[in-house]
Amino acid sequence: MITFKEILERVTFDAVWDNLIKYYPDMAQIKEKYVTVYESILLQNSATNVVEMIVHIDSIDSDDDKDKKDIEYRVHGKNNSPEWEGYWDLSASKWGEWLGFYVDQQVLEQFSTEQIVALCLVEMTWFGFSEERIKDRIDHLEDD
C-alpha cells in the first residue's frame, strides 16, 4: 500500500493549492499558513503505521442551499482495530503519523494525488496550523 508521505512527495504545493481553494474557496486568504504546514510536513519523517491506519475520503452531498447542490468531502481513517469497527477521526493525529498512514486504493482511483493532499491538509489543520496549536486545542477539549 502507498503511504500519505509517498503521495505528498509526488506533488507540488501550487498544484495542491489550486485544488484546495477549489474545494474551500474561503481559505484563499490563508495560503501562507498552508505553505508553512506543507513545508514543515515535507521535512518530517513518517512514523511507523503500527495500527495500520488507512485514509478514506468520501463525498457527501450537501443540501444546505436548495438552489445549489454542493459536494463536501470527509477524510477519515479505518483500521483493523478490535475496539472499533467504524471510522476514526484523524484531525488530531500527529503529522508524522499522517505521513505513515496508508491511502485507500479507492481513494487513489477516485482522486488525483493533488486532490488527496489538499483534502488531507484541510483535515490535518482542522485544529490549527502547528502541531503545538493542535495539541493545545485537543488538551483543552479534553478538559471540557
From TrEMBL:
InterPro entries: DUF6557. It holds the Pfam family DUF6557. This is Uncharacterized protein. It comes from Paenibacillus polysaccharolyticus.
